[in-house]
């Protein structure tokens, strides 16, 4: 007669339980492996960027703020030195090189994260509401901790819109990331009299929570569709929601390459524009008098300059310490780095020309309003 001992039965039960658990785990990863892989890549990109570059750099800017003397309005790291005695061509070249050098890490992050979000939201579409205001708030809440300058946020926004997600979410992210980051906010509050912070953040809130959603609502219906040369990647006959992790990685590589081909030329155009602008435009002459034409011209220029994150605080604080009229200090604080030629090109090419020009006009108006409102507040104090 054969029989099973208690120990043998227990071992058999444990083996069965283990096999069941392994089978369940295998089934879980088979169903969710692609999502887990993409989220893991995203976490790796974010942690590397935040802790290896962005927040250490921002904290260094906080330490340097009291004594910082900006080399330029558009770059924070100097690879190629220049002086006022250099020929114009060399000053333009040095500014171009230094801008690209200053943007290298942020743009690498923007490209890699933008392609990842493009892939992720194609496979797992981002849930959105019918409210343009709530969708904008979602973008703002994600953008605030991201710590990306508006220029490097362009590839991220591009990835979101190419995945057919809401434009207002992409723009909420892109415009809030450089202006509402907690370290940037703390720098503004501590570096300037309270009137500057009230005017700046009040006007930024009007643009982000009022002007932006309304512009998307009434201008995006006439949006230019994404060009046919940039189709959503479909791997053979397999629809994206059924992609395996290996196929998702291949789609990510395709999206990254397409984004590089689009964003890098945009970045170089921005570098050329900023290099010529800051070396040719006589800012000292503009600062000499607070008149509407001078203020308007300065706002039109500074809004287009593609500056790194927190550069507006460093530049505005330097202007404040060197007795430049407070109107121009407020203007630079509200416009430099809030928008630029890079998001304008992106919106013009891939979203809506009306929206590109409308947001530019909104930030130019914001700069003019900041200058005169602050001037009035200081006069009344």
Tell me what the structure shows:
It contains 14 helices and no strands. The protein has helices spanning 6-64, 88-123, 132-146, 153-162, 167-179, 182-191, 194-219, 245-280, 283-287, 292-304, 311-321, 326-335, 341-350, 353-380. With 381 residues, it is an all-alpha fold. Helix 2 runs antiparallel to helix 8 and helix 11 (311-321) packs antiparallel against helix 12 (326-335). The protein has one domain (30-59, 84-380). Residues 24-28 and 222-240 have low confidence and may be disordered.
> Number of helical runs?
14
Question: Could you list the spans in which at least 5 consecutive residues all have pLDDT below 50?
Answer: 24-28, 222-240
Domain tally: 1
Largest sheet: none
N-C termini distance: 103 Å
Q: Mean pLDDT, nearest integer? A: 85
Shape: globular
Q: Helical percent range?
A: over 70%
Number of strands: 0
Structural class: mainly alpha
- Rg, rounded, reads 25 Å
How do the SSEs run, as a string of H and E? Answer: HHHHHHHHHHHHHH
Q: Give the DSSP E fraction (strand runs of 2 or more residues).
A: under 5%
Topology:
Layout: H1 6-64, H2 88-123, H3 132-146, H4 153-162, H5 167-179, H6 182-191, H7 194-219, H8 245-280, H9 283-287, H10 292-304, H11 311-321, H12 326-335, H13 341-350, H14 353-380
